Amino acid sequence: MNKKTVLIIISLLIIPGIGLLDQVSGEDLSLIVLYLVPIAFASWFGGAIWGSIAGILAIASWTMANLAFPVRVDLDPTFEHSWELAEKAVFFALAVITMTKLRALVDAEKRKGLTDFTTGLPNRRAFASDLAAAQAEEGSLDVGFIELEGLENLYLEHGEAYVEALLKAIAAMARSVVPTYRFGDERLAFILKGLSDQRATDAGRKLAERIESETLNPKGLSLKLKIGIAHCGDSASIAPQALRKFLEGSMIFLRGKPGTQVENFDFV
Length: 268
Prior knowledge:
This protein has 268 residues and is an alpha+beta fold. The protein is 62% helix and 13% strand.
């Protein structure tokens, strides 16, 4: 018998005793807070079914004790008020803790839904959301794609684990230079707000140089980068996703060029 099963059984066994104690202590003194401990243990280790069984057992125990011991106990008012105050403090604290933990879990799940598992970068959904927010603001906007040419051969030669480690290293490098996202299996993306087209191009060239000198060259890899940047002087005036679609079409011209390429495409 494992530890979880033992704790569930113990939780169920102490509930009748709590029910009896709750009844003989009198109607004016509620011991409902004591039921929370075994019910919580049963729910935590056994799930909803065992938690429900513990709850039903608690109701049954209280009902049977009420029928068997219809007693009336007069309590000291000071003790009664102190107990009620402590009981309410416990319930209110549990409410705060529960809601705080629930909110933390919800936020964690949202972050997981917007994060790429391999690289740790924000994923395509996060990119789309951030791009829409950036495009809604006035001013210039640059959207860039980073592609690593020859990645297919690396999968065949070194395997998936090697390529994932390489992508993770490139992602970390890119993130240190520009706000970077995992857009697809072989494509990263970045968003730059409020830069001139020349400054955006300079940022792309700096990124390419660092990836090659600090990530690719030390591994002896001769892979070439294709970095395309779509620039719009007034992002608020264009349709949603227009800049991204324009850049997707422009990347075709980079793939046919030899060596590492960094190019800016003006959206008109």
